[in-house]
Specification:
3 helices; 5-stranded antiparallel beta sheet; Dna Ligase, domain 1; 3-stranded antiparallel beta sheet; alpha+beta; 26% helix
Length: 131
Amino acid sequence: MDTIGDFLTIIRNATKARKKVVEVSGSYVRTEIARILFEQGYIMNYRVENTTPTISKLKIALKYDPTTGLPAIKKIGRISTPGLRQYSGVGELPRIINGLGSAIISTSKGIMTDKEAKRNKIGGEVICFVY
């Protein structure tokens, strides 16, 4: 099971179907990816709702251009998979569209963008990319 890949596919399919809100089961990694997407301006907002003490839901409000109606997320995809993990050192971190996009990296200091990882001079597992 690739839960992060499923999460990214749900977001990708929802933007193609022009959904306003997406609801998925929550986890730490999914919440951190949603936080980064919010900070980078790819989604409008996100919220974690605890239905029970052990189960949480993550609601994501997707963002669209008000004039054209195009989604803010043009492309989102998985890089490191459970079958083939992709690790990169600080000098080998990918640049997405010459720095216009973002790669999300899982490091020893938490989940962050490629730009933050370069600034902190640490590498890690390249989870996904978005632009």
